[in-house]
Every structure is written in C-alpha cells, then in structure tokens.
Amino acid sequence: MSPVPALGGPSGGQGLLEAVRRRLAESGAEPTPARVAAALRAQGRLLGDAEVLGAAEALRCELVGTGPLEPLLADPAVTDVLVSAPDRVWVDRGSGLELTDVSFADAPAVRRLAQRLAAVAGRRLDDARPWVDARLPDGTRMHAVLPPVAVGSTCLSLRVVRPRAFSVAELTDAGTVPPGGERILRALIEARVSYLISGGTGSGKTTLLSTLLGLVGERERIVLAEDSAELRPDHAHVVRLEARPANQEGAGLVTLRDWSARPCGCAPTGWWSVRYGARRPSICWPP
C-alpha cells in the first residue's frame, strides 16, 4: 500500500510509526486498523482510511510477520532471503543471488526482526547468545547473527521449505540430474546401498535427498533425523525426528547422535536418513 512510505518519509513520519509500534507493543494489542487509528490519534495525527490501513499493514508485518521481507517470502519462486545490512537484502530464485530494492529503516529494525523470529522459534538471541539456527512454525529455516559478532549489522538468513518433493523427472528437466542419471538413482535405491550427498549451501542436497527417499518402496518405513526438519519425501510412511538444543538451564539437549544410537523402536526395519546442517552432508542408509 502506498501510504506506508508517507509515514516514513522526510516529514518525520518514521518516528510517528515507531511511536505507534512502541505503544502497541507495550500494550500487547494486535495492530488492527481500529487500534492503529487510536494510537495515531493519541500522537495527535489524523489520517485518512487508506493511510490508517497502510500503517496497520506495516505494523502487522513488523509485529507478527516478517516485516519488509514478507512480500519476498510470499513469492513462490524465492527459496532464500538474505539480509546483510538494512539496505542489502538479497533473494535467490534458483539462479543465484539477486539484490532487491527492499530495505529496513535502520540496523536496529533488522535486529528486532531477528530477535522476534528467534523468540517465535523458541530460541534465545541476545548479546549473551548472539547467533541462532532454528526452524519457524511454518517450516522456514532461519539463521541470524547479532553484532559485534556480525560486523556492522545483524545478518539474517531465511530459507523457505518446499511444500513438496520433486520427482526425478522434474529434477532431470531442471538440469539437477544429468541425462541418464535417473536410472542410476533408481538402481541405487533398489540395491539398498548406503549413500552420502554432499555439496555447498543451496546446491540442492535436501531437494535431491527428498526425491530419493520418495523412491523407497511403499511397504517400507522411513525415519528422518535432522538438525532442522526440512525433508519432505513423497512417501506414505515417514517418521520425522528433530534435534533440540539445551534450554537456558542447560537441560533438554537432543542430538542427532542420540537418535542414531537409540532409534526408540521407530525403525526396527526400514530406512534411516540423517541430515546435518547446511555445510555438512546428508546421509541415508537402509538396514
């Protein structure tokens, strides 16, 4: 909506928006149009309906959404959103990083968003714990680092989880699997051999592993153990396990080693898949 820039323009409207944001945050009230209008009136500013609706949407995105990143994450072609500075927001649509025209008001705005998203994920992000790697309720993977560990500005990375796995044919059409590769991949699964998928960040490890697990026979069980749950294999019988960090008291830690050593009866027969973090491999082995 166009009225939002007017609130943050050279007339000092950004301060007005910040005052309304603070007032709503302190009260814990949802930023509905009526409450935004009341908060604006309390600041001695009268606005038209369109301006109030624009301010309400901007505040909703900041207080309960992903702020200025929301339109980027809503784009079905976007797989990653990366923030390296208030005015340096990048996206990946599958063909490399692209700099966008999206920006934050200032460095504290990036920090606030990162801390709020971490809180939503049940993680701590502050000066004592300046980094976090977590999964948001909708499945989005987030990684954030606060200054001074991150030099200059909070760094924030959001990776959108694909709602479904791709077929081998789709990966072949996209060039991920070379011509003739489908026959080899299917033979790999049919032979029930262990395999390892390794590659750089964004190279397609998770995508390929999800596809391969979808080729497992329908009468078999798949148990997934992941640092952060991202795999979405197209299979009827999947048990999903996720590691968990310790709480602030140092209790409750569950690691991938725990799942590997004690499958808890989840997979007396069937396939196990262990998926490590972004720079480590995906491992899958049958019984």
Verbal overview:
The protein has 3 domains: 3-63; 67-159, Beta-Lactamase, CATH 3.30.450; 168-285, Rossmann fold. The protein has 10 helices and 11 strands. The protein has helices at 3-7, 13-27, 33-42, 49-63, 70-74, 107-120, 168-174, 181-190, 205-213, 256-261; strands spanning 80-85, 88-92, 97-99, 131-135, 141-145, 155-159, 195-197, 222-226, 238-242, 271-275, 282-285. A 6-stranded antiparallel β-sheet has the order 3-2-1-6-5-4, with helices on one face. The longest helix has 15 residues, at 13-27. Residues 1-12 have low confidence and may be disordered.
- In CATH terms, the superfamily of the largest domain is P-loop containing nucleotide triphosphate hydrolases
Estimate the strand proportion.
15-25%
Q: How would you sum up the global shape? A: elongated
Strand order of the largest sheet: 3-2-1-6-5-4
Q: Layout of helices and strands, plus pairs?
A:
Layout: H1 3-7, H2 13-27, H3 33-42, H4 49-63, H5 70-74, E1 80-85, E2 88-92, E3 97-99, H6 107-120, E4 131-135, E5 141-145, E6 155-159, H7 168-174, H8 181-190, E7 195-197, H9 205-213, E8 222-226, E9 238-242, H10 256-261, E10 271-275, E11 282-285
Parallel strand pairs: 8-9, 8-10
Antiparallel strand pairs: 1-2, 1-6, 2-3, 4-5, 5-6, 7-11, 10-11
Helix pairs in contact: 2-3, 3-4
